[in-house]
Design goal:
alpha+beta; four-stranded antiparallel β-sheet; 3 helices; 4 strands; 18% strand; elongated
């Protein structure tokens, strides 16, 4: 009889500790996600010119080329100044071959709009 009470007590204690750990994990996860969202908003607000998602910014300096860079895990197209976003893409960096991932992480240069859209079309499907 006494052993069953100890077993029930230990089980209840184990259950309470488990619930507290899960609640603590959820709290820290939510806090980390809020910080990351704030960081993304800050990074996006630092750019000079941003179009609505899926739209491109008119590029008066198209002859200067473009840079493909990583932005929050996705490929983003920047103008030649590497600060102004030309176009957002929905291409995850992890979907690219390793060699191309490294090129994009370093800022892959593309000379013409034709080459740019050839690259985007090749890796978006």
């Amino acid at each position: 009889m006494m052993k069953s009470r100890y077993i029930i007590g230990f089980f209840a204690l184990f259950l309470i500790v488990g619930v507290l750990l899960a609640a603590g994990y959820q709290f820290t996860y939510d806090h980390a996600m809020d910080r990351q969202k704030a960081q993304v908003r800050e990074e996006v607000s630092e750019t000079k010119s941003i179009a609505a998602e899926g739209e491109k910014v008119e590029n008066p300096d198209a002859a200067d080329g473009f840079y493909l860079c990583e932005l929050q895990g996705f490929v983003a197209v920047y103008l030649s100044d590497r600060k102004t976003i030309y176009e957002f893409t929905e291409i995850p960096l992890t979907d690219l071959p390793e060699e191309v991932q490294q090129e994009v992480a370093a800022g892959k240069y593309v000379r013409t709009e034709k080459e740019l859209y050839a690259f985007l079309q090749n890796y978006s499907s």
